[in-house]
Design brief:
single chain; about 300 residues; mainly alpha; about 0% strand; globular
């Protein structure tokens, strides 16, 4: 037996001793284990069987797969955010690298709208979209989690109510005043639409836990924990600003423009006032307001 093999076995002994396991049992198990294949590792068959159309229109498949790809990228973004936010004292290099990864994923999302915007026939879309009602991309839970874990909660509150909410406000009360709540309510009566009622039925409890979990460990709070000199590093500040603008202006406008191409001034499938809900100048959602000048904040989204 080679010295290298002996060394590996000793390391295995240490690993399995630490969890009260017998090394020989695990080694014997390797005798009967079949080699891994690409399709088993990636779970290709399962992944490719997750696309279900509600109509016979071919371009609906483009719509379904595009949104599934979006959700996979959202999961990648949350995976990176979790590493940063749950690291007790992230080093500046680590923080910057992970933030760059996150921005890269959102850059990919932003440049991908041509796939949907130019990849479906308008006539087909206008037919199959009616079978989607009242579902809406508004109901992406992962996207809301990205918001909660990126910034202080106050920056996600509807501008009209920010003066009445602070860190001592119950999360359940703050939840009712998130900026996107306005898209799911009747402005005259305050009554919630089916769109948002179902969304809350499915995810509200999880959202409230997420809001509390990331209240003091979101990306902005982790940035403020970095050494003061590093917080002024031009490359890091540029990366923070890029992420903020990409998520809250560039990506949003890509989505908005794709919607405009297909439905013009029509109603969203979920019934929301999507033109106001989506446009950055109405949302005024900014993750890191301290990193922008007064003029930039004042004109947020105005040049879109």
């Amino acid at each position: 037996m080679s010295q290298e093999t002996n060394s590996i076995i000793k390391e295995l002994d240490k690993k399995f001793d630490a969890i009260n396991q017998n090394t020989n049992t695990h080694l014997e198990g390797l005798l009967w284990a079949k080699p891994i294949t690409y399709w088993d590792y990636i779970q290709t068959d399962a992944l490719l069987n997750l696309q279900t159309q509600r109509t016979t229109l071919p371009d609906e498949m483009v719509f379904v797969m595009y949104h599934q790809v979006n959700e996979l990228l959202f999961k990648m973004i949350l995976w990176e955010i979790k590493q940063v936010c749950h690291c007790e004292k992230p080093e500046t290099k680590f923080f910057t690298e992970r933030l760059t990864r996150i921005s890269r994923y959102f850059d990919m999302l932003t440049t991908s709208f041509d796939i949907m915007g130019d990849g479906m026939e308008i006539e087909q879309y206008m037919k199959f979209r009616n079978t989607l009602t009242p579902a809406s991309g508004f109901q992406s839970a992962q996207y809301r989690m990205i918001e909660f874990s990126s910034t202080d909660l106050i920056n996600l509150i509807d501008y009209r109510f920010r003066a009445t909410i602070d860190r001592n406000t119950p999360y359940s009360h703050a939840f009712e005043h998130l900026y996107w709540q306005a898209a799911g309510k009747d402005h005259a009566t305050g009554k919630k639409s089916y769109l948002i009622l179902e969304f809350e039925r499915k995810y509200k409890d999880e959202f409230l836990r997420y809001m509390e979990e990331y209240n003091t460990i979101n990306i902005w709070q982790k940035f403020k924990q970095l050494p003061e000199n590093d917080q002024k590093n031009s490359d890091l500040v540029a990366a923070m600003r890029h992420y903020d603008k990409t998520v809250n202006i560039t990506w949003v406008m890509g989505h908005l423009n794709a919607a405009r191409k297909y439905i013009g001034d029509g109603d969203a499938t979920g019934g929301s006032d999507w033109k106001k809900y989506m446009h950055p100048k109405y949302q005024r959602r900014i993750f890191f307001p301290e990193l922008w000048s007064e003029d930039e904040l004042k004109n947020w989204g105005e040049d879109c």
